[in-house]
Write a structure and sequence with these properties.
Length: about 180
């Protein structure tokens, strides 16, 4: 049972790392905009923070969402294993890299960690494992159900949720005009 709990903790940590990476990529894209990148980036981050707060409140007020997310994480992990991947080992490698990054003193040290062969391999392994799991119809259905239930709960928490999401998408499209 302890190994299972550790794997769940690692999965949650990995999910947070993926979200942080997505934020960094989105922020970098916005920062590369030609005019007023500071204002657009600021608005984007504010909206992202608002949505995170709405989502947190939705999860707190709907404990079934946490259970649903935990079940999805477990299903994805099982499907990764069935496809021949070791998600526990991958996550341990990424969490070790995250710990080294927290200890790094300079951006150059952090960049060196991120670009190290072991981190790049772990990221590639994770991507392959996730792609294998996401091909499974059971995972797709569970993910779709969680997304719909989460959005419904977020809309109940704050009726402005859809407007915030639309504005965030507009900012992303303005930041990446070639991606439309």
């Amino acid at each position: 049972m302890q190994r299972h709990d550790m794997l769940k903790d690692l999965t949650k940590g990995l999910t947070m790392m993926a979200a942080a990476l997505a934020l960094a990529v989105s922020s970098a894209a916005i920062a590369q905009m030609g005019q007023q990148p500071g204002a657009m980036e600021q608005e984007f981050m504010e909206i992202q923070q608002q949505l995170a707060q709405i989502q947190q409140q939705a999860v707190e007020n709907n404990p079934g969402l946490r259970d649903q997310a935990d079940a999805l994480e477990e299903l994805v992990t099982d499907k990764m294993r069935e496809a021949g991947h070791d998600p526990g080992a991958i996550m341990e490698d990424l969490l070790a890299a995250q710990a080294r990054m927290e200890e790094a003193r300079t951006d150059a040290e952090r960049r060196e960690i991120l670009e190290s062969p072991e981190v790049l391999q772990a990221q590639q392994d994770l991507q392959e494992a996730q792609q294998a799991a996401m091909q499974d119809p059971e995972v797709q259905a569970a993910q779709q159900a969680l997304e719909e239930d989460m959005m419904d709960a977020m809309r109940r928490e704050d009726p402005q949720t859809d407007r915030l999401l639309e504005r965030m998408q507009e900012i992303q499209e303005q930041a990446q005009p070639g991606m439309r």
